[in-house]
Amino acid sequence: MDRLGAKAVVVGDDCRFGAKRAGDYALLKQLGEEYNFKAIEMPSVIYDGQRVSSTRVRQALQAGDMAVMQALLGRPYRLCGRVIAGEKRGRELGFPTANIDLHRAIAPMSGIFVVRAFLNKKSYRGVASLGVRPTFKDENARLLLEVYLFGFF
User: Fold this and answer.
1) Rg of the chain's alpha carbons, rounded to an integer?
2) CA-CA distance, 89 to 146, in Å (whole number)?
3) Using a CB cutoff of 8 Å and minimum separation of 24, what contacts does 24-29 make?
């Protein structure tokens, strides 16, 4: 813990760790006393009669239930990624887009979405296409996020 510089470790009330998930909050608290960090246990958050969990958030996302997902997260869903070089097809059509590398993000259903993007502390509104590009034949089709920002280009 010294190398991490951690002063506290916060875990949920169902936390298990270590070999065969034998570690629990009581063990963490004991380790905290031994290694000089504070162990804090947080109660589960309940929404609609069920515990909020990352599994439940992913299920809502995959089902396209954005209202439930937003309630579970306590904020609107967002995707973050880096702009990568594309084939400049949007520019040729008069709509230059930023191609976003989703890396390993779990994406909601495919489609066209109203978006807000943040760059250098400035907010831009725009539209985004999430999915494969049906307009262009692509044998190696993969999930793409292409964003057109009003007033940016």
Assistant:
1) 21
2) 11
3) none
Q: Which one-letter DSSP state was computed for residue 148? A: E
Domains observed in the chain: 8-42 (no CATH), 82-149 (2.40.30.30)
Q: Which two tokens stand for residue 7?
A: 């002063």
pLDDT digits (tens, 9 = 90+) for 7-26: 999 999 999 999 999 999 99
- Give the pTM: 0.64
134 and 119 Cβ atoms separated by less than 8 Å: no
- Using DSSP bridges, classify how beta strands 38-42 and 8-12 pair: parallel, antiparallel or unpaired: parallel
Residue 150 phi/psi, 5° resolution? Answer: -65, 130
